Amino acid sequence: MPLPARGSVTTAAAAVPWLLVALVVGLVPLLADGTSCDLSFLRGSTLYNYSLASPTKNHPHGVLSEDGFYKIAVNDTILWFQFCDSMVFNHDPPRCFDCQGCGGPSRCGTACSALVSNDFGGYSVCTAVGQPSNMVITPIDENNPQKGVIVTTLAVGLKANCSLAVSVFCDRNEVQPANSLDTLGECNYATVLRHPSGCPKVISANGGGWGWFSILMTIFLCLFGGYLLAGTVYRFFFLGIHGVEAIPNLELWLSLPQRAWSMMSSLIRRFRGHSPDGQGYYSRVNF
Question: Where are the transmembrane segments (predicted)?
């Protein structure tokens, strides 16, 4: 098969690192597990990271309900909600006269992340109070990040904008499900639960944890390894180069140890080539 022109090969090879960077930047949001359920913020030299959907001990789905929804019933009001995703009802679905903004009467509860049912004249009328796309996570107390987070969801309706705020307090030992419901205004609700997923992972830049330098080094090594892999695949399949020669810039990588040793030897000779009084160690000897 004919080989590509040298100019086009050089251009394509030079573009490989940029394509790799674009690929990594584009895929990170898609590959990150529970990205919409994450919150990270820096306080001083400490990074606090909350990942509500990441598995913890005894909770493989994090704070997300394994049933597909949480349910709270207080007087004539019933609240269903799920964190960071739409609800799933394999049993006990909402039975509503209306299901505005959350799937309609036939699929009620499956098109939103929070739904409230209120009794009006003997009819259960449901209204969406949260959508997964309209979710904000904030610390309960920025001065005490270990306290937990508040997950707020919003649903834009024809008559009013409704919301649900769930305070997830950090409790590393046990789970206390939500069993209370506060009504704030016309259709704004709030509830509280305790869960290990409300506890942040702490990364300190002062010697505790990995630190920023190690994190940056890890990212650099991953990008470098990806560049070598992408370049090798490109040269092997598209340029027909086989063997170790398929590794991009092989001569450069092989010469790095020799260059480093030469530089180190030069520095050693420079520092050892002078005595403390400014004269060389190899001074003239008179006989």
Answer: 12-32, 210-230
> Residue 36: helix, strand or coil by DSSP?
helix
The amino acid at residue 191 is T
The answer on 150 and 242 residing in a single domain is no
Q: How far does CA 92 lie from the centroid of its chain?
A: 33
Containing structural domain, residue 138: 50-202
Note the pLDDT tens digit of each residue in 59-108.
999 999 999 999 999 988 999 999 999 999 988 889 887 787 888 888 89
User: Residue 251: CB partners within 8 Å, gap ≥ 6?
Assistant: none
Short-list 39, 44, 41, 46, CA closest to 208: 46
Task: Please name the amino acid found at residue 272.
Answer: R
User: What is the number of structural domains in the chain?
Assistant: 2
Cβ atoms 119, 96 nearer than 8 A: no
Contact of 204 with 178, CB cutoff 8 Å: no
Residue pair 200/226 in contact by the 8 Å Cβ criterion: no
